[in-house]
């Protein structure tokens, strides 16, 4: 058990979220809903515009039910939440003012290192850094910074506004004060937190990713159709969505990054074998829901 009652956590007022894709937009949304002021930062202006639209859509869905008798409250709530989010393509403008910076950019260690080393030089020294990586060791990402005691993992689940879980990851260098601050931030945005060590895939992905790739192997062998596999796992195992729907939902590129990375690191583990079908779909730009096609067609 990592929690330590006698450690003072740090007060968080302002949060920067870097990367405004599937995950970053959701993280910015739930953080702004909890009352924090948020900088949403991306290198790509289009991604920022898309993120604001997706936050608007998401808030429209969640407030419809919540304020069904008072639609004017829903409007106010959406406006107040969006007012707390500032978007920018300039890293400095947000990073200089934030108490917590959450990184949600592409799953690539080199790109993450470049980003964190820049952030380390421009952010106040007390600012806490966190990565939303799905599969990379947090301690390895933290190699790029001097503040290793103020670095941890905040692993969210997609779609962020819907999924209740937040995995909070401590490396052997994360200080108790930082860890406590990250856990408190998680509770403040309404998530249920679980404490994770810095092991591959933490809790959920270590189990979920090999399951998804095992499923694709079954399909590649021709044992069953993908529709039947999805139906079977939903109706026979009680899963909310089938494994191919889940792959399309997560993104086939992200899934491929994860398995390729693990296979390189752990070449003897057979649960990390690649999938020719996924490699082919990714090479054709069929990345799942986000591009309109993956295993299924969404157009
Ligand atoms: N924002 C807010 N609300 C949303 C939403 C969003 N982006 N997407 C869906 N919802 C809400 C809908 O409004 C609806 O709410 P009500 O029940 O109150 O009406 C509810 O969620 C269900 O949505 P839909 O009816 O539109 O569609 P659905 O039933 O197909 O649900 C889903 C969509 C929420 C994505 C659902 O399929 C689901 O939860 N799937 C499982 C997702 C999952 O397992 N995620 C984890 C992936 S692994 C991961 O994230 C880790 C990693 O590192 C790869
Ligand atoms: P995505 O492709 O939807 O979004 C990534 C965004 O980062 C893009 O908008 C891109 O323009 C931006 N970006 C890339 N490099 C950047 C840089 N140097 N500076 C600023 N912005 C940059 O990806 P995603 O699915 O949101 O995944 C982001 C991270 O979250 C990854 O580490 C992934 O492993 C992790 N994650 C993904 C899921 C999932 O289900 N997709 C779930 C949990 C965690």
In short:
The protein is of the alpha/beta class.
Features:
single chain; 299 residues; alpha/beta; Rossmann fold; N-(1-d-carboxylethyl)-l-norvaline Dehydrogenase, domain 2; 2 domains; eight-stranded mixed beta sheet; 8 strands; globular; binds acetoacetyl-coenzyme A; binds nicotinamide-adenine-dinucleotide; EC 1.1.1.35; 6PGD_dom2; 3-hydroxyacyl-CoA dehydrogenase
Plain-language structure description:
- By secondary structure, the protein is an alpha/beta fold.
- It folds into two domains: 14-197, NAD(P)-binding Rossmann-like Domain (Rossmann fold, 3-Layer(aba) Sandwich); 207-290, N-(1-d-carboxylethyl)-l-norvaline Dehydrogenase, domain 2 (Orthogonal Bundle), CATH 1.10.1040.10.
- It has twelve helices and eight strands.
- Strands 3-2-1-4-5-6-7-8 form an eight-stranded mixed beta sheet.
- The radius of gyration is 19 Å and the shape is globular.
- The N and C termini lie far apart (47 Å).
- The model has no long low-confidence stretch (mean pLDDT 95).
- The structure holds acetoacetyl-coenzyme A (CAA) and nicotinamide-adenine-dinucleotide (NAD).
Q: Distance N terminus to C terminus?
A: 47 Å
Residue stretches low in confidence (pLDDT < 50, at least 5 long) are none
Q: In which range does the helix fraction lie?
A: 40-55%
Main β sheet profile: 8 strands, mixed
User: What count of domains describes the coordinates?
Assistant: 2
- The name of the CATH superfamily of the largest domain reads NAD(P)-binding Rossmann-like Domain
| CATH level 1 name of the largest domain | Alpha Beta
- Structure classification: alpha/beta
Chemical compounds bound to the protein: acetoacetyl-coenzyme A, nicotinamide-adenine-dinucleotide
CATH-derived architecture of the largest domain: 3-Layer(aba) Sandwich
Q: Which geometry do the CA atoms define?
A: globular
CATH topology of the largest domain: Rossmann fold
% residues in beta strands = 5-15%
Domain 3-hydroxyacyl-CoA dehydrogenase NAD binding: 15-199
Catalytic activity: a (3S)-3-hydroxyacyl-CoA + NAD(+) = a 3-oxoacyl-CoA + NADH + H(+)
Keywords: Fatty acid metabolism, Lipid metabolism, Mitochondrion, NAD, Oxidoreductase
Site (Important for catalytic activity): 155
